[in-house]
Amino acid sequence: MMTRPGFRLALCATLLALVVVLLGAYTRLTHAGLGCPDWPGCYGFISVPKTEAQLAHAELRFPDAPVEEHKGRNEMVHRYFAGGLALMIMMLGVQAWHRRHLSDQPVGLPLLLVGVVFAQAAFGMWTVTLKLWPQVVTAHLLGGITTLSLLFLLTARLSGVFTPMPQVSPRLRRLAAVGLVLVVVQIALGGWVSSNYAAMACTDLPTCQGQWWPDADFANGFHLTQHIGPNYLGGKLDSTARTAIHLTHRIGALLVTFSLLMLAWQLRRAGLKGLAGLLTVALGLQIALGVSNVLFHLPLAVAVAHNAGGAALMLTMTLINYRVRPAFAVSRRHAPSFWQHAHVLLHLGPHR
After folding, report:
1. What are phi and psi of 80, to 5 degrees?
2. Would you give the DSSP letter of residue 42?
3. Buried (b) or exposed (e) across 54-92, using 16+ Cβ within 10 A?
4. Which of 262, 276, 306, 338 has an alpha carbon 20 to 30 Å from 121's alpha carbon atom?
5. Residue 208 near residue 246, CB atoms below 8 Å
């Protein structure tokens, strides 16, 4: 099938969104989330201050936030790429609106993406102004994954290659939907682990702190209405609260694994062996990266790869749900008009 207008731009935006997600993870894992204490600039400049005059100005404006060039650089590179992605998404929205008269041209999805990217910009600002408040940091991560997934879905729709398959069982559709929800929840839990610095709360497997069930404070670990500030760099929770967060993420991983293996089996039975294999590989790699994070004490490269694995698993689930959903819509070009429907109904009336 021929690709549709906007496909190349959507594909480029999807790839850029993946880069932005990974840069966000790298920024967070290198503790550079407050590398620039203001937004959207850095100490009042469009880049990290370097000259003596710029450094003096930065010290005067932000006396409690000394310039750390490597952290500021990580933060600003992430912002530059995110800004470029926002421009591309707005171009997709404008193009979709101008091409709305074309058959099979998605309009709602590109416009939704424009709204999401504006929300992401707000969360990016609040991440800095609220000093890495875990609720905002986690929401920002989910917004990034949402942006990536919606762009991937738009690319799939415009590709002309991936088409929905109506001849699948309702059971398979339900399993795919449940799997997608569980993956989203697990990514949110991963963000909560990261934003509360709980990744090293358990440094052994399969036990935690040498026990199957160590002391864990779930009430404080998931106290979502905790007060804001003054600064969450390094985390504010005690060890038992962080242990609770880490344990919950592990339990979530077990649920996701069981659910997705069932889904892969059902996909294979339905003849969708390619999707089943893709899901199994993505799940296996993510499990291996998660285990490696614990056993090797969160090496930076593995931690970033674990974020990439989560994104890959989310994209896989997005593709699966797109393929197995019922093809309830037809092309506008071939869809019967209202008057054609009326004519058919009137013509059939006397024969009933």
Report:
1. -60, -45
2. B
3. bbeebeeeeeebebbeebbbbbbbbbebbeebbebbeeb
4. 306
5. yes
Whose structure tokens read 């090496």?
Answer: 299
**Burial of 46 by CB count in 10 Å (0-12 exposed, 13-18 middle, 19+ buried)?**
exposed
Q: Check 52, 59, 68, 75 and give the catalytic one.
A: 75
* pLDDT at residue 327 in the model: 53
Are residues 25 and 301 in contact, defined by beta-carbon separation less than 8 angstroms? no
Omega cis (within 30) before 230 = yes
DSSP state, residue 36? S
Q: How far apart are CA 105 and CA 90, in angstroms?
A: 16
Instruction: Please answer whether residues 215 and 243 qualify as being in contact, where contact means their C-beta atoms are separated by less than 8 angstroms.
Output: yes
pLDDT of residue 5: 80
Q: What gap in Å lies between CA 271 and CA 128, rounded to an integer?
A: 48
Q: What is the pLDDT of residues 321-336, one digit of tens each?
A: 999 986 544 444 444 4
> Residue length, the chain?
352
191: closest CA among 144, 240, 125, 131? 144
DSSP secondary structure string for all residues of 260-313: HHHHHHHHHHTT-HHHHHHHHHHHHHHHHHHHHHHHTT--HHHHHHHHHHHHHH
Asked whether residue 168 carries a pLDDT value surpassing 60, the answer given is yes
Q: Is 75 a catalytic residue?
A: yes
Report the C-alpha gap between 145 and 151 in whole angstroms.
Answer: 10
**Cα separations in angstroms, 182 against 2, 12, 254, 260, 314:** 34, 28, 11, 9, 10
Residues 154, 106: contact at Cβ < 8 Å?
yes
Confidence of residue 1 (pLDDT cuts 50, 70, 90): low
Q: Which of 215, 210, 217 minimizes the C-alpha distance to 237?
A: 217
Backbone angles phi, psi at 294, to 5 degrees: -75, -50
Model's pTM, two decimal places? Answer: 0.90
φ and ψ at 14, to 5 degrees? -65, -45
